[in-house]
TrEMBL record:
Documented EC number(s): 3.1.1.2
Alphabetical list of InterPro entries matching this protein: 6-blade_b-propeller_TolB-like, Arylesterase, Serum_paraoxonase/arylesterase
Residues annotated as the enzyme's active site: 114 (proton acceptor)
Organism of provenance: Physeter macrocephalus
Keywords, comma-separated and alphabetical: Calcium, Disulfide bond, Glycoprotein, Hydrolase, Metal-binding, Signal
Protein name, entry field: Paraoxonase
Disulfide bond sites: 42-351
Phylogenetic lineage: Eukaryota, Metazoa, Chordata, Craniata, Vertebrata
Catalytic activity, as annotated: a phenyl acetate + H2O = a phenol + acetate + H(+); an N-acyl-L-homoserine lactone + H2O = an N-acyl-L-homoserine + H(+)
Length: 353
Protein backbone atom coordinates (compact mmCIF):
# COMPACT_ATOMS: atom_id res chain seq x y z
CA UNK A 1 0.00 0.00 0.00
CA UNK A 2 2.77 2.41 1.05
CA UNK A 3 4.57 1.58 -2.17
CA UNK A 4 1.49 2.41 -4.21
CA UNK A 5 1.11 5.77 -2.49
CA UNK A 6 4.79 6.53 -3.07
CA UNK A 7 4.51 5.56 -6.73
CA UNK A 8 1.38 7.63 -7.16
CA UNK A 9 3.09 10.62 -5.52
CA UNK A 10 6.16 10.13 -7.69
CA UNK A 11 3.98 9.92 -10.79
CA UNK A 12 2.05 13.02 -9.79
CA UNK A 13 5.32 14.84 -9.06
CA UNK A 14 6.80 13.93 -12.44
CA UNK A 15 3.56 14.87 -14.18
CA UNK A 16 3.63 18.24 -12.41
CA UNK A 17 7.24 18.88 -13.43
CA UNK A 18 6.45 17.73 -16.98
CA UNK A 19 3.45 20.01 -17.14
CA UNK A 20 5.50 22.91 -15.74
CA UNK A 21 8.25 22.30 -18.28
CA UNK A 22 5.74 22.33 -21.14
CA UNK A 23 4.25 25.53 -19.73
CA UNK A 24 7.73 27.00 -19.49
CA UNK A 25 8.41 26.13 -23.15
CA UNK A 26 5.18 27.91 -24.09
CA UNK A 27 6.05 30.83 -21.85
CA UNK A 28 9.39 31.35 -23.53
CA UNK A 29 7.92 31.01 -27.04
CA UNK A 30 9.93 27.87 -27.83
CA UNK A 31 7.86 27.24 -30.95
CA UNK A 32 7.79 30.74 -32.39
CA UNK A 33 9.43 31.83 -35.68
CA UNK A 34 9.58 35.53 -36.65
CA UNK A 35 8.23 37.18 -39.77
CA UNK A 36 10.76 39.70 -41.05
CA UNK A 37 10.07 43.45 -40.73
CA UNK A 38 13.08 45.33 -42.00
CA UNK A 39 13.27 49.08 -42.61
CA UNK A 40 15.05 49.97 -45.88
CA UNK A 41 17.86 51.91 -44.44
CA UNK A 42 19.72 49.72 -41.92
CA UNK A 43 23.31 48.59 -41.54
CA UNK A 44 25.37 46.76 -38.93
CA UNK A 45 27.59 49.03 -36.86
CA UNK A 46 31.27 48.47 -37.48
CA UNK A 47 33.24 47.71 -34.30
CA UNK A 48 30.38 46.23 -32.28
CA UNK A 49 30.49 42.45 -32.50
CA UNK A 50 30.40 41.16 -28.96
CA UNK A 51 27.20 42.55 -27.58
CA UNK A 52 25.52 45.89 -27.08
CA UNK A 53 23.17 44.94 -24.28
CA UNK A 54 22.04 48.42 -23.30
CA UNK A 55 21.89 51.81 -24.98
CA UNK A 56 21.14 55.20 -23.50
CA UNK A 57 21.03 58.35 -25.65
CA UNK A 58 21.61 61.83 -24.23
CA UNK A 59 19.34 64.71 -25.33
CA UNK A 60 22.35 65.93 -27.37
CA UNK A 61 22.37 62.75 -29.50
CA UNK A 62 25.39 61.06 -27.91
CA UNK A 63 24.63 57.37 -27.41
CA UNK A 64 26.27 55.20 -24.75
CA UNK A 65 26.39 51.49 -25.55
CA UNK A 66 27.35 48.78 -23.04
CA UNK A 67 29.18 45.84 -24.59
CA UNK A 68 30.70 42.50 -23.65
CA UNK A 69 28.18 41.21 -21.10
CA UNK A 70 28.97 37.83 -19.56
CA UNK A 71 25.91 36.47 -17.78
CA UNK A 72 24.80 32.96 -16.83
CA UNK A 73 22.67 31.35 -19.53
CA UNK A 74 23.45 33.75 -22.36
CA UNK A 75 26.08 33.18 -25.07
CA UNK A 76 29.24 35.26 -25.30
CA UNK A 77 31.69 35.41 -28.21
CA UNK A 78 34.55 37.00 -26.27
CA UNK A 79 34.63 35.39 -22.81
CA UNK A 80 38.20 36.49 -22.09
CA UNK A 81 37.78 40.14 -22.99
CA UNK A 82 36.56 42.71 -20.49
CA UNK A 83 33.43 44.68 -21.27
CA UNK A 84 33.49 48.21 -22.60
CA UNK A 85 31.33 51.28 -22.98
CA UNK A 86 31.14 52.70 -26.50
CA UNK A 87 30.09 56.16 -27.61
CA UNK A 88 28.32 57.06 -30.86
CA UNK A 89 27.37 60.57 -31.98
CA UNK A 90 24.02 60.29 -33.77
CA UNK A 91 24.34 63.83 -35.15
CA UNK A 92 27.08 62.66 -37.52
CA UNK A 93 26.19 61.75 -41.09
CA UNK A 94 27.79 58.30 -40.78
CA UNK A 95 28.10 57.76 -37.04
CA UNK A 96 30.91 55.48 -35.86
CA UNK A 97 31.51 53.94 -32.45
CA UNK A 98 34.43 54.74 -30.22
CA UNK A 99 35.38 52.90 -27.01
CA UNK A 100 35.44 55.23 -24.02
CA UNK A 101 38.63 55.36 -22.02
CA UNK A 102 38.09 54.56 -18.33
CA UNK A 103 40.12 56.34 -15.65
CA UNK A 104 42.87 54.51 -13.77
CA UNK A 105 42.01 53.08 -10.37
CA UNK A 106 38.99 51.19 -11.69
CA UNK A 107 39.33 47.43 -12.22
CA UNK A 108 38.86 47.34 -16.00
CA UNK A 109 39.84 43.66 -16.32
CA UNK A 110 36.70 42.52 -14.49
CA UNK A 111 34.40 45.14 -16.04
CA UNK A 112 31.18 43.35 -17.09
CA UNK A 113 28.62 46.03 -17.94
CA UNK A 114 24.91 45.22 -18.17
CA UNK A 115 22.12 47.85 -17.94
CA UNK A 116 23.07 51.54 -18.07
CA UNK A 117 21.34 54.83 -17.36
CA UNK A 118 22.46 58.44 -17.69
CA UNK A 119 21.86 61.37 -15.38
CA UNK A 120 22.52 65.07 -16.03
CA UNK A 121 22.81 67.28 -12.95
CA UNK A 122 21.88 70.95 -12.67
CA UNK A 123 25.41 71.95 -13.73
CA UNK A 124 24.96 69.92 -16.94
CA UNK A 125 27.51 67.33 -15.82
CA UNK A 126 26.73 63.95 -17.35
CA UNK A 127 26.92 60.83 -15.18
CA UNK A 128 26.72 57.29 -16.47
CA UNK A 129 25.43 54.65 -14.06
CA UNK A 130 26.37 51.12 -15.05
CA UNK A 131 25.18 47.77 -13.68
CA UNK A 132 28.41 45.79 -13.39
CA UNK A 133 28.94 42.08 -12.72
CA UNK A 134 32.59 41.79 -11.67
CA UNK A 135 33.22 38.11 -10.82
CA UNK A 136 29.46 37.56 -11.34
CA UNK A 137 28.47 39.84 -8.45
CA UNK A 138 26.25 42.89 -8.91
CA UNK A 139 27.40 46.44 -8.32
CA UNK A 140 26.38 49.82 -9.67
CA UNK A 141 29.28 51.94 -10.92
CA UNK A 142 28.98 55.72 -11.17
CA UNK A 143 31.12 57.43 -13.80
CA UNK A 144 31.47 61.07 -14.78
CA UNK A 145 31.52 61.55 -18.55
CA UNK A 146 34.27 63.81 -19.92
CA UNK A 147 33.03 64.69 -23.38
CA UNK A 148 36.21 66.40 -24.62
CA UNK A 149 38.48 63.54 -23.56
CA UNK A 150 35.93 60.91 -24.58
CA UNK A 151 36.48 59.24 -21.22
CA UNK A 152 34.72 58.01 -18.11
CA UNK A 153 36.04 58.95 -14.70
CA UNK A 154 35.09 56.39 -12.08
CA UNK A 155 33.57 58.03 -9.00
CA UNK A 156 32.00 55.32 -6.90
CA UNK A 157 31.00 51.66 -6.59
CA UNK A 158 27.64 50.97 -4.94
CA UNK A 159 27.04 47.59 -3.31
CA UNK A 160 24.13 46.51 -1.16
CA UNK A 161 22.77 43.20 0.07
CA UNK A 162 19.52 43.83 -1.84
CA UNK A 163 21.38 44.73 -5.04
CA UNK A 164 21.60 41.15 -6.33
CA UNK A 165 21.23 39.78 -9.87
CA UNK A 166 20.69 43.33 -11.08
CA UNK A 167 19.70 43.70 -14.71
CA UNK A 168 18.93 47.35 -15.36
CA UNK A 169 18.67 50.67 -13.57
CA UNK A 170 17.05 54.02 -14.11
CA UNK A 171 18.65 56.98 -12.36
CA UNK A 172 16.31 59.43 -10.63
CA UNK A 173 18.79 61.84 -9.02
CA UNK A 174 22.29 61.92 -7.54
CA UNK A 175 22.89 58.37 -6.23
CA UNK A 176 19.18 57.62 -6.45
CA UNK A 177 17.87 54.93 -8.74
CA UNK A 178 15.49 52.07 -9.29
CA UNK A 179 17.10 48.72 -10.11
CA UNK A 180 15.55 45.48 -11.33
CA UNK A 181 16.49 42.05 -10.04
CA UNK A 182 16.03 39.48 -12.82
CA UNK A 183 16.29 36.28 -10.81
CA UNK A 184 16.17 35.39 -7.13
CA UNK A 185 18.42 32.36 -6.82
CA UNK A 186 22.03 32.59 -7.91
CA UNK A 187 22.71 28.83 -7.95
CA UNK A 188 21.08 25.83 -9.67
CA UNK A 189 17.81 26.63 -7.88
CA UNK A 190 17.31 29.32 -10.54
CA UNK A 191 15.99 26.48 -12.73
CA UNK A 192 13.37 25.65 -10.11
CA UNK A 193 12.54 29.34 -9.93
CA UNK A 194 11.89 29.44 -13.69
CA UNK A 195 10.06 26.11 -13.90
CA UNK A 196 7.81 26.83 -10.92
CA UNK A 197 7.43 30.51 -11.89
CA UNK A 198 8.04 31.63 -8.30
CA UNK A 199 7.80 35.38 -9.09
CA UNK A 200 10.29 36.40 -6.44
CA UNK A 201 12.00 39.16 -8.40
CA UNK A 202 11.50 42.82 -7.62
CA UNK A 203 12.28 46.49 -8.17
CA UNK A 204 14.54 48.13 -5.66
CA UNK A 205 14.77 51.81 -4.80
CA UNK A 206 18.27 52.84 -3.81
CA UNK A 207 19.45 56.09 -2.20
CA UNK A 208 22.22 56.71 0.32
CA UNK A 209 19.57 57.18 3.05
CA UNK A 210 17.07 54.51 2.17
CA UNK A 211 17.03 51.23 0.27
CA UNK A 212 13.76 49.36 -0.20
CA UNK A 213 11.83 47.00 -2.41
CA UNK A 214 9.14 49.10 -4.11
CA UNK A 215 7.40 46.48 -6.27
CA UNK A 216 7.54 42.71 -6.36
CA UNK A 217 5.90 39.64 -7.85
CA UNK A 218 7.67 39.69 -11.22
CA UNK A 219 8.60 36.49 -13.01
CA UNK A 220 11.83 38.16 -14.12
CA UNK A 221 12.03 41.94 -13.92
CA UNK A 222 14.36 43.20 -16.63
CA UNK A 223 14.52 46.56 -18.43
CA UNK A 224 13.30 49.64 -16.60
CA UNK A 225 12.82 53.22 -17.72
CA UNK A 226 10.92 56.39 -16.87
CA UNK A 227 8.34 58.42 -18.80
CA UNK A 228 9.42 61.84 -20.14
CA UNK A 229 7.28 63.62 -17.50
CA UNK A 230 8.99 61.47 -14.80
CA UNK A 231 5.64 60.35 -13.36
CA UNK A 232 5.60 56.75 -14.57
CA UNK A 233 7.99 53.84 -14.55
CA UNK A 234 7.91 51.15 -17.23
CA UNK A 235 9.23 47.70 -16.32
CA UNK A 236 9.70 44.74 -18.66
CA UNK A 237 8.90 41.30 -17.22
CA UNK A 238 10.81 39.14 -19.68
CA UNK A 239 9.32 35.76 -18.69
CA UNK A 240 5.80 37.14 -18.48
CA UNK A 241 6.14 38.76 -21.91
CA UNK A 242 4.73 42.09 -20.79
CA UNK A 243 5.40 45.65 -19.69
CA UNK A 244 4.14 46.95 -16.35
CA UNK A 245 3.16 50.61 -16.21
CA UNK A 246 3.74 51.83 -12.65
CA UNK A 247 2.93 55.15 -10.99
CA UNK A 248 5.75 56.71 -9.03
CA UNK A 249 4.83 58.21 -5.63
CA UNK A 250 6.56 60.93 -3.61
CA UNK A 251 7.97 58.32 -1.21
CA UNK A 252 9.35 56.41 -4.25
CA UNK A 253 6.88 53.54 -3.87
CA UNK A 254 5.45 52.21 -7.11
CA UNK A 255 1.87 51.10 -7.73
CA UNK A 256 0.79 49.24 -10.81
CA UNK A 257 -1.55 51.01 -13.23
CA UNK A 258 -1.70 48.40 -15.97
CA UNK A 259 0.08 45.59 -17.74
CA UNK A 260 0.59 45.60 -21.52
CA UNK A 261 0.85 42.05 -22.89
CA UNK A 262 3.21 41.71 -25.85
CA UNK A 263 3.54 37.98 -26.55
CA UNK A 264 7.32 38.27 -26.86
CA UNK A 265 10.11 38.24 -24.27
CA UNK A 266 10.70 41.89 -23.50
CA UNK A 267 14.21 42.80 -22.47
CA UNK A 268 15.16 46.44 -22.28
CA UNK A 269 12.96 49.50 -22.60
CA UNK A 270 13.64 53.03 -23.77
CA UNK A 271 11.38 55.99 -24.48
CA UNK A 272 11.34 58.02 -27.69
CA UNK A 273 12.00 61.55 -26.33
CA UNK A 274 10.01 63.16 -29.16
CA UNK A 275 6.82 61.12 -28.87
CA UNK A 276 6.92 59.41 -25.46
CA UNK A 277 6.48 56.03 -27.22
CA UNK A 278 8.07 53.03 -25.50
CA UNK A 279 10.58 51.05 -27.54
CA UNK A 280 11.10 47.47 -26.46
CA UNK A 281 14.00 45.22 -27.45
CA UNK A 282 12.58 41.68 -27.44
CA UNK A 283 13.57 38.03 -27.81
CA UNK A 284 11.07 36.34 -30.14
CA UNK A 285 12.07 32.84 -28.97
CA UNK A 286 14.11 32.39 -25.80
CA UNK A 287 15.02 28.74 -26.36
CA UNK A 288 17.12 29.82 -29.33
CA UNK A 289 18.82 32.35 -27.08
CA UNK A 290 19.45 29.91 -24.22
CA UNK A 291 20.54 27.02 -26.46
CA UNK A 292 22.61 28.87 -29.00
CA UNK A 293 22.95 27.18 -32.37
CA UNK A 294 24.66 28.98 -35.28
CA UNK A 295 22.47 27.01 -37.74
CA UNK A 296 19.25 28.26 -36.17
CA UNK A 297 20.19 31.40 -34.26
CA UNK A 298 17.93 33.53 -32.04
CA UNK A 299 16.19 36.34 -33.89
CA UNK A 300 15.50 39.96 -33.05
CA UNK A 301 12.36 41.99 -32.58
CA UNK A 302 11.70 45.62 -31.72
CA UNK A 303 8.23 46.82 -30.78
CA UNK A 304 6.94 50.39 -30.52
CA UNK A 305 4.15 51.06 -27.99
CA UNK A 306 2.22 54.25 -28.61
CA UNK A 307 -0.05 55.82 -25.98
CA UNK A 308 1.06 53.42 -23.24
CA UNK A 309 -1.09 55.23 -20.66
CA UNK A 310 -4.29 55.21 -22.71
CA UNK A 311 -7.06 52.60 -22.73
CA UNK A 312 -5.78 51.12 -25.98
CA UNK A 313 -2.03 51.33 -26.42
CA UNK A 314 -1.03 50.76 -30.05
CA UNK A 315 1.68 48.19 -30.63
CA UNK A 316 3.62 47.95 -33.88
CA UNK A 317 6.72 46.08 -35.01
CA UNK A 318 9.59 48.39 -35.81
CA UNK A 319 12.04 45.62 -36.72
CA UNK A 320 12.04 41.83 -36.86
CA UNK A 321 14.65 39.42 -38.19
CA UNK A 322 15.19 35.66 -37.85
CA UNK A 323 18.83 36.02 -36.82
CA UNK A 324 20.33 36.10 -40.32
CA UNK A 325 21.19 39.78 -39.74
CA UNK A 326 20.87 40.46 -36.03
CA UNK A 327 20.72 37.97 -33.14
CA UNK A 328 19.29 38.39 -29.66
CA UNK A 329 18.10 42.01 -29.70
CA UNK A 330 17.93 43.37 -26.17
CA UNK A 331 17.35 47.09 -26.60
CA UNK A 332 16.30 49.72 -29.12
CA UNK A 333 16.65 53.45 -28.80
CA UNK A 334 15.69 56.30 -31.11
CA UNK A 335 16.98 59.81 -31.65
CA UNK A 336 15.46 62.11 -34.26
CA UNK A 337 14.47 59.41 -36.71
CA UNK A 338 17.53 57.24 -36.15
CA UNK A 339 17.13 53.84 -34.56
CA UNK A 340 19.85 51.90 -32.76
CA UNK A 341 19.24 48.24 -31.94
CA UNK A 342 21.53 46.49 -29.46
CA UNK A 343 21.92 42.79 -28.70
CA UNK A 344 22.91 40.67 -25.70
CA UNK A 345 26.02 39.15 -27.32
CA UNK A 346 25.89 39.86 -31.08
CA UNK A 347 26.21 42.95 -33.29
CA UNK A 348 24.30 46.23 -33.32
CA UNK A 349 22.17 47.79 -36.05
CA UNK A 350 21.76 51.42 -37.10
CA UNK A 351 18.67 52.40 -39.10
CA UNK A 352 17.45 55.70 -40.51
CA UNK A 353 13.66 55.53 -40.18
C1 LIG B 1 18.86 43.98 -22.10
O1 LIG B 1 18.42 42.70 -21.88
C2 LIG B 1 19.43 41.72 -21.78
C3 LIG B 1 18.81 40.39 -21.65
O2 LIG B 1 18.16 40.30 -20.44
C4 LIG B 1 20.24 42.00 -20.59
O3 LIG B 1 21.26 41.03 -20.46
C5 LIG B 1 20.80 43.37 -20.72
O4 LIG B 1 21.43 43.71 -19.58
C6 LIG B 1 19.71 44.38 -21.00
N1 LIG B 1 20.26 45.68 -21.31
C7 LIG B 1 19.93 46.72 -20.66
C8 LIG B 1 20.55 47.96 -21.10
O5 LIG B 1 19.14 46.70 -19.74
C1 LIG C 1 34.93 40.18 -30.46
O1 LIG C 1 35.51 39.08 -29.81
C2 LIG C 1 36.39 38.33 -30.64
C3 LIG C 1 36.80 37.10 -29.87
O2 LIG C 1 37.42 37.45 -28.66
C4 LIG C 1 37.58 39.23 -31.03
O3 LIG C 1 38.45 38.51 -31.87
C5 LIG C 1 37.04 40.45 -31.74
O4 LIG C 1 38.11 41.34 -32.01
C6 LIG C 1 36.00 41.17 -30.90
N1 LIG C 1 35.44 42.23 -31.71
C7 LIG C 1 35.25 43.45 -31.27
C8 LIG C 1 34.73 44.44 -32.25
O5 LIG C 1 35.48 43.79 -30.12
C1 LIG D 1 43.34 56.47 -21.71
O1 LIG D 1 43.68 56.68 -20.36
C2 LIG D 1 45.00 56.28 -20.04
C3 LIG D 1 45.17 56.42 -18.56
O2 LIG D 1 44.23 57.24 -17.96
C4 LIG D 1 45.96 57.16 -20.84
O3 LIG D 1 47.27 56.76 -20.55
C5 LIG D 1 45.67 56.96 -22.31
O4 LIG D 1 46.49 57.83 -23.07
C6 LIG D 1 44.23 57.26 -22.62
N1 LIG D 1 43.96 56.93 -24.01
C7 LIG D 1 43.31 57.74 -24.82
C8 LIG D 1 43.10 57.23 -26.19
O5 LIG D 1 42.94 58.84 -24.48
C1 LIG E 1 16.13 33.69 -42.31
O1 LIG E 1 15.57 34.49 -43.31
C2 LIG E 1 16.34 34.53 -44.50
C3 LIG E 1 15.67 35.49 -45.46
O2 LIG E 1 15.43 36.71 -44.83
C4 LIG E 1 16.48 33.15 -45.09
O3 LIG E 1 17.32 33.19 -46.23
C5 LIG E 1 17.06 32.20 -44.05
O4 LIG E 1 17.04 30.89 -44.54
C6 LIG E 1 16.28 32.26 -42.75
N1 LIG E 1 17.00 31.48 -41.76
C7 LIG E 1 16.41 30.63 -40.93
C8 LIG E 1 17.30 29.94 -39.96
O5 LIG E 1 15.21 30.42 -40.95
CA1 LIG F 1 18.86 50.95 -19.18
CA1 LIG G 1 17.92 43.83 -19.69
Amino acid sequence: MGKLVALTLLGAGLALIGERLMTLRERINAYREVEPVEPQNCHLIEGLENGSEDIDILPSGLAFISSGLKYPGVPNFAPDEPGQIFLMDLNEQNPRVQALNISDGFDKASFNPHGISTFIDKDQIVYLYVVNHPHMESTVEIFKFEEQQRSLVHLKTIKHELLKSVNDIVVLGAEQFYATRDHYFTNFLVLLEMVMDLRWTYILFYSPREVKVVAKGFSSANGITISPDKKYIYVADILDKNIHVMKKHDNWDLTQLKVIQLGTLVDNLTVDPDTGDILAGCHPNAIKLLMYNTEDPPGSEVLRIRNALSEKPRISTEYANNGSMLQGSSVASVYQGKLLIGTVFHKALYCVL
